[in-house]
Known about the structure:
This protein is an alpha/beta fold and 330 residues long. The protein folds into two domains: 2-129, no CATH class; 141-328, no CATH class. Helix content is 48%, strand content 10%. The protein has twelve helices and seven strands. It has helices at 2-10, 15-29, 50-65, 97-115, 118-129, 150-161, 168-184, 232-244, 264-273, 283-293, 299-312, 317-328, and strands at 190-193, 209-212, 219-226, 229-230, 249-254, 259-260, 277-282. The strands form two sheets. It has a five-stranded mixed β-sheet with strand order 1-2-3-5-7, with helices on both faces. Strand 2 (209-212) and strand 3 (219-226) form a beta hairpin. The longest helix has 19 residues, at 97-115. The model has no long low-confidence stretch (mean pLDDT 92).
Amino acid sequence: METMIEQIIGHTHRTYRYILLTGMLAKAVNPDTDPLALQAGAPLAGAFDARTLCHAVVVPFEQAALEKRLGGSNEPFLNKPARYTHLSVDNAVRRGRDRQTLERLIAVFERVNAEDNGKDALIAVLARILKLESRVITFDETRFDAVVSKRALEQLCDRLLARSCEGESLALVAALLFELVSRSQGGTLKVASHPANQSGASSNEVSDVDVFEADGKTLRYCCEAKDKSFTRAAVDHAVTKVRKKGGSTMLFVYGPNGGAQESLPAIVQDYETKGFDLTFVSARDFAAGVIALAPPIAWAEVTQILNQHLGLMRAKDDTVQHVKQVLADA
């Protein structure tokens, strides 16, 4: 069983990790619980509300004690694998590793049910989770109180952008810069970043990075971030999402790997005639402008911002490791 636990936790789809820990916790606390259940209405004798247990207990515990090793998600049970009433081989899942992981998860829970060893199984799961790399970014505490110079901030952004990490580095830099914009305006703006290449996936998302007024609802800025070659169709799609939310302006930030074959000024002028204010800017130019006007900020605050948005965007492990290395070299 330990081998299957290791394979489940090692799978890139982190929702399965949360389901595994939540099910084992439920079984350890109440032996009559069936960890195969995901909802209280599941057709199982020991059904329970796994989503509530996960979001109310597992998520805070992971963030406080496990250093976000499961993935740092705030609401993991909103993802598709956890939306069924219970785990079953009949659940729709992609072939390959996702299918294998689902089958392994079912096999592990069935074995725990048969052997009634929930506490031992929970210990085994936690022991494997603790072997994962911490997803919390730290910084040398002796430098925490030092104010970051504007030159150092620009270098930080450049080093983050040196590796695209499938666009996540650019989105992270954009979020950091908008946090600086918020601080220059009294800290009243709310900056929300979203999983890269998935903007619009929920009703609360508009662009890759959305900035709201203090109420958290009124949009102030919408920022699309692209660190790869993009087409006019990609721009049109991003603008359409903003317009659907009642917006009439958007910032389109492109990274060192980004660019369009068409004339950007021509696209801007075309949208201007349609009553939409579109701005294209390179990430480095955006960083230079924002940082030049930013108020003083300490390394501790920068680190906190990066941790916050790595969590919000559900950054890949590779991205987290990249950020760790950049800060270690800062």
